[in-house]
Amino acid sequence: DKFKEGLAKTRNQFTSKVNDLVARFREIDEEFFEELEELLLQADVGVETVMELIDQLKLEVQRKNKKDTAGIQSVISEKLVEIYNAGEELDVRLNIQEDELTVILMVGVNGVGKTTTIGKLAARLLAEGKTVMLAAGDTFRAGAIDQLVVWGERAGVEVIRQSEGSDPAAVMYDAIRAAKNRKIDVLICDTAGRLQNKVNLMNELQKIHRVISKEVEGAPHEVLLALDATTGQNALVQAQTFKEATNVTGIVLTKLDGTAKGGIVLAIRNKLNIPVKFVGLGEGVDDLQPFDTEKYVYGLFA
Ligand code: GDP
């Protein structure tokens, strides 16, 4: 299945190294835990999560009076799932309104896969029987509008656009009007991904937010942040910045297929307390999957 395929890189490196470790050590001792810790850190699981996992593993091993490493992989998976699901319960489903327009705002730095994600998400929603429209709110980056139009054509949905350099808030306003007129279910709005100037980013996102919430009560219903899994801990830094600039309701972790450091999913959940709602597992239109912790963690060792 897609999930398993998309995790091949992480599985091949991380999992095979864990398997090697287990074969090499046989007996559980301090050195085994140290090497395991190192492997987890290399997979970008994140220091805090790794520490917690190692502590939990030590307790579990003691509790079960387990002396050998055989089959420890399943204990690792169990504990990873437990740690991931601990704390506040986070809803991974999209907040889609029943009988009125749902507005989804897509944010993220250029190049992370924002446009691609919008196209994939549009296709997903269409497949679920929703009507979808796109708003070309990245009026800043050259080519961004055209790229969104290409995805719109590919998915078969209309793209509301103005010329490059126009006010993104005005594009949103137009798009909401058009979506309401045509009784569209879901409007997905692209935004510019400039991070160089945090104040500008904040101002722009806040202005867009104001326009959208004025036109549609309770909107935006989702603010999805696209993060590139291949950038590792850097993705966490971006997330922190966007979290300060706007009310991020969910994360789309893109390019998970392109990294052996898939552990970043766990670090994001535990550091930011924002649910990872989708993961990108390829460049095709079908390569956006809802995130499922158990499928993910057990998929690593499958
Ligand atoms: P944007 O600048 O954030 O809008 O980024 P794009 O949507 O243009 O994507 C940048 C590049 O990443 C493109 O070549 C995409 O095909 C690629 N990309 C996006 N998502 C994924 C993914 O989940 N997996 C892989 N392998 N590539 C992706």
Automatic annotation (TrEMBL):
InterPro entries found in the cross-reference section: AAA+_ATPase, P-loop_NTPase, Signal_recog_particl_SRP54_hlx, SR_rcpt_FtsY, SRP/SRP_N, SRP54_GTPase_dom, SRP54_N_sf
Do the record's keywords include Nucleus? Answer: no
One of its Pfam families is: SRP54
**Keyword GTP-binding: yes or no?**
yes
Instruction: Give the subcellular location.
Output: Cell membrane; Cytoplasm
Q: How does the protein associate with the membrane?
A: Peripheral membrane protein
Keywords, ordered alphabetically: Cell membrane, Cytoplasm, GTP-binding, Hydrolase, Membrane, Nucleotide-binding, Receptor
Tell me which EC number(s) this protein carries. Answer: 3.6.5.4
Top-level taxonomic group: Bacteria
Q: Which reaction does it catalyse?
A: GTP + H2O = GDP + phosphate + H(+)
List residues binding GTP.
108-115, 190-194, 254-257
SMART domains attached to this UniProt entry: AAA, SRP54, SRP54_N
The SRP54-type proteins GTP-binding domain is annotated at: 275-288
Function comment: Involved in targeting and insertion of nascent membrane proteins into the cytoplasmic membrane. Acts as a receptor for the complex formed by the signal recognition particle (SRP) and the ribosome-nascent chain (RNC).
Q: Which PANTHER family match?
A: SIGNAL RECOGNITION PARTICLE RECEPTOR SUBUNIT ALPHA
Oligomeric form and interacting partners: Part of the signal recognition particle protein translocation system, which is composed of SRP and FtsY.
Q: What family does the Swiss-Prot or TrEMBL record give for this protein?
A: Belongs to the GTP-binding SRP family. FtsY subfamily.
Protein name as it appears in the record: Signal recognition particle receptor FtsY
Gene source species: Sporosarcina siberiensis
Report which gene this protein is encoded by.
Answer: ftsY
